[in-house]
Design a protein that fits this description.
The structure is a single chain. The chain is mostly beta strands and 112 residues long. The protein has one helix and seven strands, in the order βββββαββ. It has a four-stranded antiparallel β-sheet.
Amino acid sequence: NGCPSTVTIDKLKQKGDSKVKVTATVPGSGTLKVGSPSDPALASAAAKKSLKAVTKTLTATTKQQVVLTLKLTKSAIGKLDEAGKLKVKVKAVYTPVGGPPGSQTKKTKLKS
């Protein structure tokens, strides 16, 4: 049934005041979307999204590590400034060519 759809979020790291650096491993070519679990592009949920989603199309057919930088939304930046810290969930959805999507969600804490 096509390529494996396993995606692994290896690292989440705060970058500056309003960005999160995501390092993920995918098994081959396909599409990788990373953002908030509540983002309609990734899943359906009622909570507000705190990260702007990023999509990357992968053409290499071998296992690879992908680094993406996500930006916080204006409301998330406001919450971070107000409270001095913010819990963020990051969801990665990998869809291989001709196969079903696979996903992983990971949490991280940000500090202002």
